[in-house]
Amino acid sequence: MDFQLLVNEAFRASQNAYAPYSKFYVGACVLVEDGTLIYGANIENAAYGSSMCAERNAIYQAYCRGYHKEDIKALAIVADCKPLISPCGACRQVLAELLNKDTPIILGCKDYFKVTTIEELLPHAFIGECL
Length: 131
Ligand code: ZN
Prior knowledge:
alpha+beta
C-alpha cells in the first residue's frame, strides 16, 4: 500500500477545506478495497459546534456510498502543521466504531508521516459491544 500516495491525495483534499475561522486546513483520504479514494476536508461554521472534521467527513462519505469497515483499507489525515496532526477525541470515537481496529491510519504533514491505528489512538474504546 502506497501511504505516501494517500498522504498526497489527502493534501489535495485539504484544498477544499472551508476554514475561514481557524485557517487550519485539514484533508483526509479513505482508500477502499476496490481502489476508490474518498476525500474529506474540514468544514467550519460560525456556530463552531456545527463544524465537521476532515476525517469524519471522509469516513461518513465512505459509509454513505455503501462501504463499511471491512472495505476500508486505510485512512490518511493530513495538515501542514507541527507537531503531526492527530484526530480529535470525537473523531477517535467515530473511527473506533467505523474502522477495524488494525486499519492503518496515516497521520501526515508536508515532510513526513506516521502510521498508526485506532487501537493505538483510542485504547479501551467505548464501542457498541459494551452495550
Ligand atoms: Zn475531529
